[in-house]
């Protein structure tokens, strides 16, 4: 960060700035100095909001702000000897008095995390936000434990009046397992306003097409195994590996059930490179003939052989079915989990951001609404580690810092 830009951030307090700089470049130092500049220009410390991402960073913010005010309010303070690299000018006596006053009232300045700020908004307006007055933001660990508990209750049939959800949960357990639930449902919950894209074909069509292929494929593999001494093709290294897989797993393949998607995928994925010879001296059974239709003919060292057609993607069919059933359970879980969290007054950080933003978004009262109350209380915002890729966070702060209300938050223009 150049010295010119540092000076502008500290001295041009009537302008908004977005600071992008690498770690260790002094962003937090400049934010603290801008806060001091606001104080020395007559801004009451209780009108300043300084936010960061972690409690540790917030505590450091507080300590550095306190130290800077204390240093500059000392009698005989001289920048050249006491704070040589500061972008602030030497304070006047009047400004030193303002620094002393700010020190006395420093605890009225909102120095904290973004989630603590959002929590204050929600606690002051629980009815408008449609949440219990006792609602609290819980840690990520507690949030994960609640999700794990929900999953366990679902697979053991302990969620009242939700028999279909229980059925979906048990299927989810068979298909992918418990370890995928928490990260997957967190993604769904964090993007609750986004539409979950399901496969284009309905599940009945997906299952029917897969089962048709499965029956041909399984019967063909069994028949191919019986004829292996006549049809085995090992001219290709991958095909050789596939033949070894077939021989090793023929017992599993013989007993494989059509709805055992997880095992079918595991086996079939290892057989995609299977090739077999065209032996015109052997009469093909119906099963092998049907199986052959899933392959195309080619020459392997002047010998005719068969290789699976690219369009015959039985593993892809399984993936689509698994994807459908997994998403079906996650979508069903989302609404139930959100209702349970609401009833218990529990919120993740993301939940709180969503509730607060929805509260602000629906406020259309320019004079007596929630936004006007926030504006009357807080006038200046400094946000360290602002997550500019988080649209919910962007919308919240653009709306509460804009002098006018807009339907589209991107039309909001924050005042300095």
What does this structure look like?
It contains 19 helices and eight strands. By secondary structure, it is mainly alpha-helical. Strands 2-1-8 form a three-stranded parallel β-sheet. Strand 5 (295-300) and strand 6 form a beta hairpin. Helix 10 packs across helix 16, helix 11 crosses helix 15 (286-292) and helix 11 crosses helix 16 (314-344). The two termini are 21 Å apart.
List the helices and strands and how they pair.
Layout: H1 3-11, H2 27-40, E1 48-52, H3 55-72, H4 79-82, H5 93-104, E2 110-113, H6 114-124, H7 126-129, E3 136-137, H8 140-155, H9 163-175, H10 181-190, H11 203-226, H12 228-231, H13 237-255, H14 261-269, E4 275-277, H15 286-292, E5 295-300, E6 303-308, H16 314-344, E7 346-347, H17 349-361, H18 370-377, E8 380-383, H19 391-401
Parallel strand pairs: 1-2, 1-8, 3-7
Antiparallel strand pairs: 4-6, 5-6
Helix pairs in contact: 1-2, 2-3, 3-5, 6-17, 8-9, 9-16, 10-16, 11-13, 11-15, 11-16, 14-16, 17-19
Biggest beta sheet attributes: 3 strands, parallel
The SSE string, one letter per element, is HHEHHHEHHEHHHHHHHEHEEHEHHEH
End-to-end distance: 21 Å
Query: Quick check: average pLDDT?
Result: 88
Number of strands: 8
Rg for CA atoms:
32 Å
Helix/strand structural class: mainly alpha
List unreliable stretches of 5+ residues.
none
Secondary structure tally, helices: 19
- The percentage of residues in β strands lies in 5-15%
Strand order of the largest sheet: 2-1-8
Query: What's the overall geometry?
Result: elongated
Level of helix content? Answer: 55-70%
């Amino acid at each position: 960060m150049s010295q010119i830009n540092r000076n502008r951030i500290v001295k041009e307090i009537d302008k908004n700035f977005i600071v992008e700089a690498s770690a260790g470049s002094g962003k937090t130092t400049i934010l603290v100095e801008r806060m001091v500049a606001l104080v020395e220009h007559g801004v009451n410390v209780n009108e300043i909001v300084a936010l960061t991402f972690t409690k540790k960073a917030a505590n450091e913010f507080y300590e550095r702000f306190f130290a800077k005010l204390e240093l500059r309010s000392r009698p005989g303070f001289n920048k050249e000897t006491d704070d040589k690299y500061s972008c602030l000018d030497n304070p006047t006596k009047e400004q030193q008095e303002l620094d002393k006053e700010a020190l006395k009232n420093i605890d009225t300045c909102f120095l904290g995390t973004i989630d603590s700020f959002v929590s204050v908004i929600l606690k002051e307006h629980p009815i408008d936000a449609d949440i219990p007055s006792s609602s609290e933001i819980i840690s990520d660990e507690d949030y994960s434990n609640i999700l794990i508990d929900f999953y366990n209750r679902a697979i053991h049939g302990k969620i009242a009046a939700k028999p279909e959800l229980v059925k979906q949960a048990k299927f989810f357990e068979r298909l992918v397992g418990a370890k995928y639930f928490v990260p997957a449902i967190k993604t769904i919950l964090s993007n609750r306003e986004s539409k979950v894209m399901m496969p284009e074909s309905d599940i009945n069509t997906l299952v029917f097409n897969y089962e048709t292929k499965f029956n041909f494929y399984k019967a063909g593999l069994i028949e191919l195994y019986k004829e292996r001494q006549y049809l085995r093709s090992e001219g290709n290294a991958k095909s050789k590996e596939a033949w070894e897989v077939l021989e090793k797993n023929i017992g599993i393949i013989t007993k494989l059930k059509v709805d055992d998607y997880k095992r079918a995928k595991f086996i079939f994925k290892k057989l995609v490179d299977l090739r077999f010879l065209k032996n015109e001296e052997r009469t093909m059974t119906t099963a092998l003939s049907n199986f052959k239709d899933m392959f195309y003919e080619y020459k392997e060292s002047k010998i005719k052989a068969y290789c699976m057609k690219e369009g015959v993607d039985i593993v892809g069919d399984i993936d689509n079915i698994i994807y459908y059933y997994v998403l079906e359970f996650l979508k069903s879980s989302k609404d139930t989990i959100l209702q349970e969290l609401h009833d218990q007054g529990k919120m993740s950080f993301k939940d709180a951001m969503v509730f607060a933003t929805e509260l602000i978004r629906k406020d259309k009262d320019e004079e007596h609404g929630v936004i006007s109350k926030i504006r009357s209380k807080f006038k200046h915002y400094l946000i360290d580690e602002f997550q500019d890729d988080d649209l919910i966070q962007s919308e919240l702060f653009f709306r509460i810092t804009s002098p006018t209300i807009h339907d589209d938050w991107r039309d909001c223009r924050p005042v300095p």
